[in-house]
């Protein structure tokens, strides 16, 4: 599309000339309908070129018709004058209404921007203010757990701690989802060795470390440009799901393959699998498994956030699930060049 | 740091210069007698002086109490300005633990000023904000500055403090 406003205005204003040329060539067929093709010309002029263009095109059309395309009955024939009058009226109407449409679109876009901005501010409040008391609850529960007390009191403290952790995770998920939705997720990227990062992610959580087996397709380090913390969040979520929903005590296969310009992480677990009906909406917000084995409640945002984080890195995520057998998630990420210097972060310390 | 399986529990263990051994945190519950191991975990930080700053009074009280229970001597500040004041008037401190978002002067700005004045006190910067500029700002404070994201649990506060203190002592 031509973006320059003056160019568009001029082109629009000149469109009656095109209409004139065509009508002149086909005069024998259209001579009773002197304004015929000037209607679409004026419509186009006011749509593409704006108010100026529309009004100029209307005037130009009238001049061209009067001067060069007289009907057989003559210009002053009342029917012809009426027809010209209707044409002028329509030309003005087209112009006015296109302008109103443009203004309405602009107002809607501005309102949309404002809603998004308000949502960002709200999310920031959630992140900051809500997390403070949640943090305090969690730490106090930890302190209770460390002081001599009865088993029952320790159990209470532990449950408080777990609930606080869940609250905090939900608040953080809401913030992350909101940022992803508004395309405002900021990543702190650095050169990372993906194989090493994945191994660190697995090792960090004992429940995953006990079951996951990581294998590389190549001995060379596979460099990517990524945010280590966010990648841990994304990959960690898939691994945690594999532990939660997979068959207990079965291994979780984590494979890292190098492809031409990308690297692929495949995470496969055995288990009941995902209901095929749910697969298309799996990565959408608030889509949750209806399966009876769904043991944990949450915000339904985990996979949505994982997908958002992967795509924010320029990657893709897919899932393949064979019911009652195996579920495989595949994350591909673009490869980066090997770093020049030796001061590079290999995963997190 | 490595993981060790103890019965029904997995524990994170680190070697440190501390008299009671280095058991940092227990993940999962111990189905046993808590009393036999809590003497080891109650005082996990050396008895150093720590300055804690946060404009949220509940957070300030919680973090300060936690550090106190972990064996340190805690001084409290409620703003970036007060942080600098107390650092100067009641120093020296082995560690500063500060929130980022405080009115008038943020924790990071206060620490920039402190570094500029030549004080290399190690600092833990706490924040609930997801702004990606904060890790960069913390990095610019040098190797003696660490970012701790809120919400964190007691074990994370502990291990971060232990790690920083053992690195910089």
Describe the protein's architecture and organization.
The complex is a heterodimer of chains A (349) and B (169). Chain A has 10 helices and 7 strands. With 349 residues, chain A is an alpha+beta fold. Chain B contains 6 helices and 8 strands. A 5-stranded parallel sheet of chain B has the order 5-4-6-7-8, sandwiched between helices. Chain B is globular, with a radius of gyration of 16 Å. At the A-B interface, helix 5 and helix 6 of A face helix 1, helix 2, helix 5 and helix 6 of B.
Please state how the strands of the largest beta sheet of chain A are arranged side by side: 2-4-5-7-6
What proportion of the residues of chain A is helical, as a percent range? 55-70%
Q: Cα distance, first to last residue of chain B? A: 19 Å
The counted number of beta strands of chain A is: 7
Please give the most extensive interface between any two protein chains, plus how many residues each contributes.
A-B, 35 and 34 residues
Strand content of chain A: 5-15%
Rg of chain B: 16 Å
The DSSP helix count of chain A reads 10
Count of DSSP H/I helices of chain B: 6
Assign the structural class of chain B, choosing from mainly alpha, mainly beta, alpha/beta, alpha+beta, or little secondary structure: alpha/beta
User: Main β-sheet of chain A: number of strands, strand sense, barrel status?
Assistant: 5 strands, mixed
What is the molecular shape of chain B? globular
Structural class of chain A: alpha+beta
Average pLDDT for all residues of chain B: 77
Roughly what percent helix of chain B? 25-40%
In this structure, how is the largest beta sheet of chain B organized? 5 strands, parallel
**Order of H and E elements of chain A:** HHHHHHEHHEEHEEHEE
Tell me the Rg of chain A in angstroms.
33 Å
* Percentage of residues in strands of chain B: 15-25%
Q: Round the mean pLDDT of chain A to the nearest integer and report it.
A: 85
